[in-house]
Design goal:
With about 450 residues, the chain is α/β, with parallel strands linked by helices. The protein folds into 4 domains: about 120 residues, Rossmann fold; about 110 residues, 2-Layer Sandwich (Transcription Regulator spoIIAA); about 120 residues, 2-Layer Sandwich (Transcription Regulator spoIIAA), CATH 3.30.750.200; about 60 residues, OB fold (Dihydrolipoamide Acetyltransferase, E2P). Helix content is about 35%, strand content about 25%. The strands form 5 sheets. Strands 2-1-3-4-5-6 form a 6-stranded parallel sheet, with helices on both faces. Strand 5, helix 6 and strand 6 form a beta-alpha-beta unit. Helix 10 runs parallel beside helix 12 and helix 13 packs parallel to helix 14.
Length: about 450
Amino acid sequence: MFYHIVTFGCQMNVCDSWWLERALKNRGFTPAAEEEADFFILNTCSVREKPEQKVYSLLGRLQEYTRERPHVFAAVGGCVAQQVGGEFLKRFPFVRLVFGTDGLVMAPDALHRLASNPGLKLSLLDFSEMYPEREQALPEHMPAQAFVNIMQGCDNFCAYCIVPYTRGRQKSRASGAILRECREMVEKGAREITLLGQNVNSYGRDKYGDGTDFAALLHMIAEIPGLRRLRFTTSHPKDIAPEVIRAFGELPALCPHLHLPVQSGSDRVLKAMGRKYDRDSYLRTVDSLRRACPDISLTTDIIVGFPGETGEDFLQTMDLVRRAGFESSFSFKYCDRPGVRACRMQPKVEEEVKSERLARLQMLQEKLSRQALKARVGGRATVLVESRNERPRTGEMQWRGRDGGNRVVNIPAESARDLTGKEVEVKITQAKKHSLIGEVLP
């Protein structure tokens, strides 16, 4: 049978879908284009409203396939499945499986059962007591970039966030299992590994930890022979330990880039959000990171228009963005998510006010991003090449990769030599709006 996976949301979902694809192939299923699929898997995200609405829209469209091909069915997994649950089975008759974030580990076998039993419907929505370890389903040859989950869930319960309700409480994965997976990935060709979790800085601090904290885990993974680059995401500012900060100056493999979501620059708003840090402590962390690694690239997340946010609160956010010097940021207008505390908070900020503030913030960020990219011109960088693609408008072919700071670097493809998965030394010759242009050094 043929399947088609659609993934919404975060990098953890992308990683989960990649594992699910490997597990399905091991059971004899074949990936296919949408119009050829016998079943669909939607791996969903509910952090913001728009991805959730896209799920309903896509299911409505996919249901059309069942008119001429009644055997076609769908599975809905991820955060929206955990949140909505069995309602998908009632609302869309062709949906025959819903599985939550912990139920993912059982999804391949469930899909195998569904394929041979047309009348069956299944629901896998219970949270596991411990991290649900998965079967190893690595390909014979790994791509240069790989992702490894080190934990599941979150214990922070920020006022706006639905993650603890859809991914459950924090469960750290055993350090030995993480190391085995990382070693096998490197042996099969991976050169860069990104560690994933809702709050990687608190790895090992829950009751499921095995005594290994996050800083120790970084040191152990960085020692794997053949591993060139190590990254991690996402970090909570309140939990980043001094040992993790020092690691940026101590571990050559640890890339000089950190995504550190600040969400707001106002102490009053941060308190209402339940973030458990203030602007001064955040900026002190930024200063410590720059002392440990002067070339570090910092990026962040920001919510605009949180309930009760005043004009002065917003100006404090703008000021913090300037002082921190973020190279880029993901910024969004606040929207209510079902069941979280912020839904009940008043007053709500008017939509037009949120839009105006977001536009101002993004204009500032674009200026800071341009300055940061221009500062790289004339310098050298080591780029891990990801792909070869066509340059917009000109049609010229170019290599696309990233430097250690996670900046996109495009390199003219002047020879037939395949650079995919290779590290190349380049001189940065030009800064574009969101990327750099470089030339390979001899």
